[in-house]
Amino acid sequence: MTDFLLELRSEEIPARMQDKARDDLARLFAAELAKAGLAAAAIDTYATPRRLALIARDLPAETAAVSEELKGPRTAAPPQALDGFLRKTGLARDALVERDGVYYAVIDKPGRATDAVLAEAIPAIVRAFPWPKSMRWGDASASTESLRWVRPLHGIVALLGSDVVPCAIAGIVSGRSTVGHRFHGAGTIEILSPADYADQLRAAHVVLDQDERRALIRTRAAALAAEAGLVLVEDEGLVGENAGLTEWPVPLLGRFDAAFLDVPPEVIQLTARVNQKYFVCRDAAGKLANAFVCTANIDASDGGAKIVEGNRKVLAARLSDARFFYDTDLKVPLEEQAKKLDKIVFHEKLGTLADKVERVAKLARWLVEQGIILLGTEFGVGLPPAIQDRAGSTIDPELGTSAAGGGGAPQAATPVEPPLHPQPAAGGPPPRTGEELADLAERAARLCKADLVTGMVGEFPELQGLMGGYYAAAQGEPQEVADAIRDHYKPVGQGDDVPTAPVTVAVSLADKLDTLFGFFAEDERPTGSKDPFALRRAALAILAIQMQQQLRWELTALYDNWIRLSGREYLQAAGGLEHLRYFFADRLKVQQREAGVRHDLIDAVFALGGEDDLVRLLARVRALQAFVTTPDGTNLLAGYKRAANILKKEGYTTASAPANAGAHGQVASANPGLLPAQEHGTPDKPLSYTPENAEAALITALDSAEPAAAAAIEAENFERAMAALASLRAPIDAFFETVTVNDADQAKRAARLRLLARVRTAVHAVADFSRIEG
Questions:
Q1: SS3 687
Q2: Which of 63, 131, 371, 412 measures 20 to 30 Å from 477, CA to CA?
Q3: What confidence tens digit (pLDDT) does each residue in 145-177 have?
Q4: In the predicted model, what is the mean pLDDT of the chain?
Q5: Contact 75, 98 (CB under 8 A)
Q6: Among 507, 506, 518, residue whose Cα is nearest residue 568
Q7: Taking the model in full, what pTM does it have?
């Protein structure tokens, strides 16, 4: 067994391409070996700025002999088909094997020397390499058939053990010669074997292993910051990028003018990171320090002093530009900046950004005025109890409660758990009234997109929202407005902070809801894997805010009011709402999957129809999940499915009860041979026969369970509703054990089918159990 080394040396490979290039090299190499029946025990790949390398472990000296079988035409096929197959295989007619009326060619391939296989594989790999961007070079580049590589390819090292594997690509002949570090290396290096490769490069100031370079940068940068009494701001992406830019990484710490710290810290960090690939540091108090760490690619004789000074000057120039943008932007009020938004098209069907801002401002105000934000855990549009006189309502900072304000005596507070707003510190400003919060939400919404036309965001789009918050605070806007502008894009992804302040929540929700409602109303929905307007992300963000804050609303009311507030006619409005329901249901499954919530239970509750309140729906789903995993739940599900199967077989159908319906649903029979549907065994409609004991027991249990479950659902106590249904488990089991449903007596048969339909309806008051797996 022998190791094989392949090095493809070129001019500098972009750092962002190196990791994928290593994966592609391993994949292509393994595929070429597999064609010849070879496989390496392990394949290790490496990348530096100037080389892409691979070491394949334990290759045999030659491939094993293989026998390949090719299927040919049928024996009854025309002679021309057989002639073509014979030419393809190079065999004579009598060498074919006939089996089940089909000709087969069995071709024995002798073993081949591994170096011969590798000599063919290397050019194939190089020519098939899928660089994101590649180039041609030299005189040969005039031809479209010339070699393409990420940067001009200069050399190939191909060693099987200590022997060179001869091959050539575009005039580049393989060998054992390579070069070390661009400045520290001393001429060419003759690689002795794959085992010596890394050590010989290290002696020439090249750290081959990218993971080792990353560790060197990470450790030394943190140590330099600690030596200066600072803490390095960790940035793993920057570690990888610097490792991809250097073959001999040497981190160095420098300082910039402290006067630049007047610029927002995020601007300094982004300037240093994006433009210069520098790390930044914080002081002991957690504030940004006037220090940076750059990564040199050489061991300088002066310890890096000149390198640090040069980098300091370049960074100072970049920071001067950033400060210029910041100071210039501050001179223009955000309100004036916002007027420029009517020149920017948001979407051809939804108007300009100014149109969007107008809709968002109205919706944000409405969300607060309706109490959805202010009183989220207790009240919501279309939900009991009715919302009354929210104007002037306040938040009690001590109790986290909602109380009616105004000139009268204070009203009793209704607890809100958890508080949906930051509580002011003792001695802080008084709590805002509901009207004040509505005004602040509208103001923040009207200014939230204004920073998109500023110079700073034009230079660094990543800072949108953040810079608007800084500008708003500096220009004297209320803190709630500045915070809402800063955070209204949040959450932007899984793990991102979810807004909690009421003004921020209102603006964030309004922005995302407007985007979703607008595109769905215009029938611009995501299809398959395509989601050009990031609507799935917007829906997940809405759900994250709604679930964390326990905000209560009905989607229909929200959507209808958005249509009214937008002042436009949408052809797809009605259909858009229905699509939105399914869309949110699908996103809810995605969001709750990691929390361990079963998707079939979400389907079971959604199937009831009419459930727009996702907080209530999820509470019902969680109670259902806890119930169906208990013995009572498992057995009730089995009994339900048995009843449902009998009813289905008999053509006995029932309409799904609405989400908040009582336990008695509308029952109808699709079988004209059955008696007219009626309640089974109710006091006002006695049976025409004496029921058996188990039958009577089930009637009694239903008489108790149905109203108990209905009352619990009305009170949104779904655990109690499940407990009421659990009382049906034993009577249902006993019923199926002792009672014959399809009795010869038609009156008994019809009554018992109606009783099973009553069981099904009672269960459907909680969820459609037919959707539950298991």
A1: coil
A2: 371
A3: 899 999 999 999 999 999 999 999 999 999 999
A4: 84
A5: yes
A6: 518
A7: 0.75
